[in-house]
Amino acid sequence: MQSRRHLLSGFLAASLLSAFLLTPAARAQFPEPDGGDLERGTLPAKWATGGPKCMEMPEWQVHEYNPNLFILRQSGCTDAEMPFLYLIFGQDRGLLWDTGSRNGDLVPTLQHVVHQWLERNHRTSIPLTVIHSHSHDDHTWGDAAIQALRDPAMPIDFVPAAQADEQRALHIAHWPTDTGFLDLGQRRLDIVPIPGHDIVSIALYDRRTGILLTGDSLYPGRLYIHDFADFEASTERLIAFIQGKPVAHILGNHIEQTSTPFLDSPIGSIYHPNEHTLDMSYGALLELEDALKSMHGTPRRLAMRDFTLWPVAPNSQSLGPKMAQIYKETQAKQLKNKWDQSAPDATPPQ
Question: Model pTM?
């Protein structure tokens, strides 16, 4: 009898293990902790923000994740939004994700990186497709300068941040339920429409690196939700898409969170001395899903460890008088002292 129990127990364990290995989540892993066939890369331990001395700060920080993927960050000395941009190269073309925020003189830095990449790869030119994570002006401010650029080494294919243009360029048959793609030549990028923060928000998954770009829909900071139902549906759709795929990093467009759990930087800050890391894991996406479900369809502000859900009125650009006052006071203090500032104190969500 005892041996039968052991046999049955062993059979059930083997069956459960077999079932686990066949699940989509398990297929997203590798048999050994070696990253499988993903292209490796590195992220910096710390990003430049906007100080402490703006005289010493370049307008853009450029980080080489690996030889074909670059991350650009706009300095807080130019604009408090400090957005991240992504530049990805394939065999036949490159992709630029967003064009930066106000006062961001992107073109010289972009040309420098592309020309250096061409020199290293013994090439004379590569076309560059420009798309946007969404249509807000802190990610589209540089559009005019990019469209005016005439550089034979990097001819521009510009895709406006509009639904019809994105559907056409990214091969999305039905918005927002279908996925799309962009082929850079031996590098396919998957596109997932995720409206909710903005009507034309999209996510991008890079099969080579396992990187998922989530724009302003998931990052370490305040997740402004303009359409709650759309945002919740988009989160579910993104999770369904990513099942069975390895995720090395989830990378968003901003960092507003501090390194202290549940604590963000004051809105309007140009300098983040104690900043959260940029990258998040697949677990953060599941945590976002759980937080949305906990509201049972009634939007409310909810601070999580690494981000805050922040519902706002549909089509509203205002965060209310209290946040406007914090923005005004923070800007006044930090801009006045941007040549030599002390570390500002982070304030809890208002």
Answer: 0.90
